[in-house]
Amino acid sequence: MSRAAKATLIGSVLVSGLTVWGVHFMQTKEREVMYRGVQRDEARQAEKKRQRQLDLELNQKREEEYQKMQPTAASSTTTAAAAAGSGS
User: Fold this and answer.
1) Which domain holds residue 47?
2) Phi, then psi, of 60 in degrees rounded to 5
3) I need a labelling partner for 41 at 20 to 30 A (CA). Which of 13, 33, 74, 87 fits?
4) Whole-structure pTM value
């Protein structure tokens, strides 16, 4: 085999190897970035759920206070619905 052929073979093997390694490296980094996005979404959803639960509890307390001051006919159905909804 001539010197030029050996150099071409070695060069093409190196370029191919570096290309495969580069693609693998890029895929690994992309996967990490995508997973961090999933983690951010889960944290955002958990915070939103926590905030909604706090709002629900606050509204239930307010409704109880208002019902003590001025009971309404709908208070029995609203209280029953709130009690059924808070069981989960």
Assistant:
1) 28-70
2) -65, -40
3) 87
4) 0.53
pLDDT of residue 57 exceeding 70, the answer is yes
- The C-alpha atoms of residue 44 and residue 64 are separated, in whole angstroms, by 30
Residues 6+ apart with CB under 8 A from 63: 78, 79, 82
Q: Which two tokens stand for residue 6?
A: 């050996």
Decide which of 2 and 88 is more confident.
Answer: 2
Domain-located, residue 19:
no
Tokens representing 76 are 């029995």
Q: Is residue 71 classed as helix, strand or coil in its secondary structure?
A: coil
Tell how far CA 86 is from the center of its chain: 25
Q: Is residue 17 part of a domain?
A: no
**Greatest CA separation found in the chain?**
101
